[in-house]
Amino acid sequence: MTTDDFRPEKKITTFYPPQRILMGPGPSDTHPRVLAALARPTLGHLDPVFTDMMEELKGLLRYAFQTANLLTFPVSGPGSVGMEMCFVNMIVPGDKVVVCRNGVFGGRMIENVERCGGIPVVVEDKWGEPVDPQKLEDALKSNPDTKIVAFVHAETSTGVQSDAKTLCEIAKKYGCLTIMDTVTSLGGTPIYMDEWGVDAIYSGSQKCLSCPPGLSPVSFSERVANLVKGRTEKVHSWFMDINLLLGYWGSSRTYHHTAPTNSLYGLHESLVMLYEEGLEHSWARHRRNHEALKAGLKTLGIEYVVAEPYRLPQLNSVHVPAGIDEKEVRRRLLADYNLEIGAGLGDFAGKIWRFGLMGNSSKIEKVIFCLDALEHVLADLGMKVERGAAATAAHQYYAANPMPA
């Protein structure tokens, strides 16, 4: 036997991905400035120049989350790792945790509670509807020994946004800590971590931050920091133990793991761009593009899943028109236009499309392109449409609603 016996039968050469337009639930299109940052020379993760950049990164994340928390940094891993970090550090076996579920990602929170040995109490709401604050209050009244309340701010599977401020106020009223998922909301819709009183928050790099997947920004309040420091048993994860990570992301720069330096360059650049644009401007841009897309979809008779007051501007979930093969539409958009949109998950599988307008994918030209492509595909599949009406409606909205200075 020789090394050639293990050669792949097919000749493999350098991989060159096609140039897609990503308008699904994530990832979003990576900004060229971020791609350029990723290609810069690799430094050691303890290099003093790199550690200076880490300090800037933490400050930029505090701005994005609107918090003064010292314990704010990016975790090496996708948003799912940030989620697990919150639960594994804050829960000890036997802790009661109220989890609000109104979509796929609330369900993942329940899974985390169970794997940490906690006792989940589930507040259930219909998919496509926000978390009902009264249901949360009722659950806390019935479970006065609850330690933590966990909820998803922006539910990616449905495109609905819940009232985080009110949910946190209720949790605080009953003496509970809070965990909030902001994977889809960070940078695209308002988040005020300190003002709302959120204790633990996590997000992802690949959505409204226009960065590739692989990093999860997190932030923890002083209450969480004290809770973790006071644990009498070790956190049930070595890699995600906040006490150990503080040695690397804190002032001592103690070796913990080999941080993904080039990925962190990219996140740093994306946050610099957010800082330059300004949070309020970014939120307004996402809102404006959402309204233009909505105007175009209306001409096609396409209706939204979520009621107007609770819709996420950056994640537009809509019902598939009657008689249309939703999978075929997505296939044709990808094959003919290099355009990716999202399918439904869980209860919504086969029933909805999800249009992402996140970060670098939230642009006028991409909204118009998406509407044009969708209109052509639907017409080809036999649906009656007025050619050009969708893009015209979007243009009219843009003309009547310029971006504020």
From TrEMBL:
The keyword Transferase applies. Substrate binds at R354. Gene3D superfamilies: Aspartate Aminotransferase, domain 1, Type I PLP-dependent aspartate aminotransferase-like (Major domain). GO terms for molecular function: alanine-glyoxylate transaminase activity; L-serine-pyruvate transaminase activity. PROSITE patterns: AA_TRANSFER_CLASS_5. Keywords: Aminotransferase, Pyridoxal phosphate, Pyruvate, Transferase. This is Alanine-glyoxylate transaminase / serine-glyoxylate transaminase / serine-pyruvate transaminase. It comes from Nitrosomonas halophila.
